[in-house]
Amino acid sequence: MATLNFNLVNQSGSSTAYAYITGQAIDNSNALFLLRADGKTAYYPTSPSATLTALAQDCAIPLGAVGSTTTVTIPYLAGARLWFVRDGKLTFYLNPGPALVEPSSSNPSDANYNLFWDFCEFTWNSSQLYVNITYVDFVSLPIALALTNTSGTTKTVQGLPADGLATICTALKAQNTTDGAGWDKLIVTNNGTNLRAVSPNTGIVLNSGLFSTYYAAYVNQVWSKYASTTLTVNTQASAGDVTATVSNGTLNFSTGSITYAQPSTADIFSNSSGAFAVSGNSTKDAITARLAAAFNRSTLLIDTNQPNGETVANYYQNPVTNHYSRICHATTLGNRGYAFPYDDVAPANGTDQSGSVYDSSPKLLTVTLGGGATTTAAESVERVAAGTDAPAPLTGNPKQSRLRKTLRKLFQKK
């Protein structure tokens, strides 16, 4: 059976930090997999007779003292997550199936809700190792990635600086002062301490009515523009370029009778409901990914060619935009990290926003918990306001959206 080593580096500032690894074991009929506390032994839970049954094995991998490196070994895994928690341990449960009940950032009654925890995502199979940091649900602990292949080449995602959460929370409060839209409600605290900043999609779950009509005026402007102008979307797939105009209140594409009603704010932030629900039609789903990305980045009024007419400098320039995503990208070292589900959409040969590394011949993945740099308050404000860090050029496979959406489905709680 193929195996691969991960080095887990504890720079969290806490000597009581733990890791957990979950996924589906490809070489064991995609069985539910957890790694036991020794970092080497597989645990395949059996189906329990009742919901919310405790795990039968200890799966909390201790990361040791600050500065320590812990090596773990994994088999081929699909839809996998590498979880981290600081100053405590996470609680996982099993439901009949077996199905894993994961920690939740959108359920205040969850046993893990008031802990500092976070995760990155990966799949390793015979084709490649694919890993990404993610802010799709929330951001809390800084996580950085370094993937070295068998030729000795290393690809990195620097992630957040050590003070990244504080910077993001400060910027969300500042944005709310500017527009009063409720961005400060995305900040989750415990006893006055910032625990995490949740995405707008998660924030809508936690705060009834939040952002309910936030994008409405912008969507109306987009619909008005394309009633007299042609929109071109490059599917970056076999369908190539497709064009659309608005008539009778509907965005109508020139291929396959593909149409879109006006998306709601919830559709735009989730990328997966209403007008942007997954259809099963590969061409439409490719269009949806690029429309959803354009709405989150608010580029449809300035670029009629999506996404190939875009540049990173045009992202988030409209006052109505996904400011959570804007702030996350401005805060990360290198501007990379998934802040909404289709954040991997990019122009052909463009700049990667997704915070992913992947290689067909991996040798070692190093994951650092804690961040590698600290900025002063003035530097943080300046960087978030200006977004001065230049994103790294895209290398490798530029079409990860469909994989990303598949992974998101696998990660949903049963």
UniProtKB/TrEMBL annotation:
Gene3D superfamilies: Beta-1,3-glucanase, C-terminal domain, Thaumatin. Residues 1-371 form the GH64 domain. Pfam families: Glyco_hydro_64. Residues 383-405 are annotated as: Disordered. InterPro entries: Glyco_hydro_64, Glyco_hydro_64_fam, Glyco_hydro_64_N_2, Osmotin/thaumatin-like_sf. PANTHER family: GLUCANASE B (PTHR38165:SF1), PTHR38165. This is GH64 domain-containing protein.
